[in-house]
Structure formats: C-alpha cells, structure tokens
Amino acid sequence: MQKPSFNFKHTHNPNTVKIRNRVLIITVCAALISAIVGSVCFFSGIEKPERAVPAGKSSSYAHRTFSETRSHAPSAASSAPKPSQPAAKAVVKPKKVIYLTFDDGPSTLTVPLLNVLDKYHVKATFFVVGVNDKDEVSDLKEIARRGHAIGVHSYTHDYRQIYASPEAFFSDFDKMHSLIKNATGIDTKIYRFPGGSVNAYNKKTRKAIIQSLKQRGYVFFDWNAGGGDAVVHPQAAKILSEALTTTHMHDNSIVLFHNSSVKNATLSIIPQFISTLQKEGYTFAALNPSVDNRPFIFYHDA
C-alpha cells in the first residue's frame, strides 16, 4: 500500500500563514520594548557628576538649582576680602568738675583757706569785696600768687546802694575792679552778683546791668550747689551735708561758700568736702571767662 507524502513547501494553508505573521509581529514588538526598557535602566544607573563647589562653600551648595545658585552666588564685591574693622573705642565718660567758689573775702580766714587748698592741690575762685581787714591787699596778692582765680563781687556789698540804678552799680563795680587790678595786675573778666543775678533788689535794674556787663566783656556766674553757710552761725555738719548733697545732684557744679572772717565753720569742713569728692572721681578747677555760664546762672534772656 502506498504511503501518503507531506510536502510542507507546497502547503498553502491560509490560517497557518496568519498565525505565523502574528507571532512574528509580537516577537518583534517584544524585542523593541525590551530594548527600550533596557536603555532607560542603563542610563538611569549612571551617576551624574556634581557641579564644582566654590571654595569656602559646603558640599550641599552643588545640589542647589540653577536659580538658587544664581540668586545666592557671591558677587565680586562681596567675595573680595573685607577690610578689618577698627577696634571699638572705649567710651570716655565726661569728667565730673567742681568749681569751688568763695564769696566775701578776703579776710583773716583767707590764708588758712589757701593752705587747705594747697594741701589738696585744688584751685578755687574768689569773688572778693572791698576793704574787710588791714591785710586785704596782701591777701589779694596771695590769692593770685597761689594760682587761684579772682572775680569782682562788690566793693560795698550794699544791695540797696548798688542795685539802685545801672550807674550806681557800675560805680561800685569799677571801684572793686580797680582795687583788684592795682593789687594783683589781673584785669579780671568774671563777676558774681551779690545775692545772685536774680534777687529782690535788682528786679528793675538787672536786665540793663547784665546787658552792660556783656558789652564790656564780663561773664557772670551764679551757682547750682552750696553749703547754705550765708546764715548766721551755721553748723559745720549741716554745711557739709548740704554741700555734698547739692553737689551730688550734678556732674558739673559751681559750689558757693563764703570766706568772710566769721565763717570758721565753713573753713573747718573744706578738707572733708574736697577729699570726699576727690575719692568719688570729681576734679576741681577755677572759673575763667571761657567757661559756659548758662548752666550756672539764674537770669536768662527771655
């Protein structure tokens, strides 16, 4: 019996061809997809190089976005070395100055007072009056010789007389000024009103008098501290207490004391007054026309 023969070459079954073509298309698509996926995986595994890190920056600087880097990048001016800053200067506190003043001398107590001032190396200011004792001229000379300042106070110290009119005032003033100049050679330009620039006796004349003093080139000084020793028979302890209390109220003070022959209590407290304030950092100085009188006067132009 003859066997049947199978010749695949000549087999043309349409269904077989369709199946084979589909398998081929699927195989090609799978290969393409595999290739694409492999490429993505390959390139994603490569580490990207970091940007160069500028000197002085931390490594985190390299991971900023471009906009961050541009906005934070140091400019040429800011990257330049900064000049060294000068060391801060120490704050210098203003000196606490006391202008120690004595009215109504010279007297028998003037030289003893000068000896106390010498002991503590203090210069003071004496606003002097007319003849009080037989040694007035020599005492004026001694005040000047020891380096203290001298100013006009009054010749008569008679309030009613000197404040009666500007003419009466300058008659008294000129007499005292001439006495000082003849005794010491000092043409003093400082003055203190008896009773202060504002008192019950010069209400009508003070403005005209002060204007004339300024025109003549004189500077007047009142005070902002004192011991209250103008009263009769003052107690030494009270003078000292009041003088220290009022002086402590200011950094700069003009302190009023008196040097007439009856002011023994005042003389007795001067050593303790000076030594106490020197220990507290105060310095003492004499008045002169260059000292600004505005903080220390009672009268001010309206």
| CATH-defined architecture of the domain at 96-296 | Alpha-Beta Barrel
Protein structure class: alpha/beta
CATH fold type of the domain at 96-296: TIM Barrel
Strand content: 5-15%
Proportion in helices? 40-55%
How does this structure look, described?
- With 302 residues, the protein is α/β, with parallel strands linked by helices.
- The protein has helices spanning 14-44, 66-72, 76-79, 110-119, 136-145, 159-162, 166-184, 206-216, 236-247, 264-279; strands spanning 96-105, 125-129, 149-154, 190-191, 219-220, 225-226, 252-258, 282-285.
- The strands form two sheets. Strands 1, 2, 3, 6, 7 and 8 form a six-stranded parallel beta sheet that branches.
- α5 (136-145) crosses α7 (166-184) and α9 (236-247) runs parallel beside α10.
- The model is unreliable at 1-12 and 40-81 (pLDDT under 50).
Furnish the topology, listing elements before pairings.
Blueprint (H helix, E strand, L loop, with lengths): L13 H31 L21 H7 L3 H4 L16 E10 L4 H10 L5 E5 L6 H10 L3 E6 L4 H4 L3 H19 L5 E2 L14 H11 L2 E2 L4 E2 L9 H12 L4 E7 L5 H16 L2 E4 L17
Parallel strand pairs: 1-2, 1-7, 1-8, 2-3, 4-5, 6-7
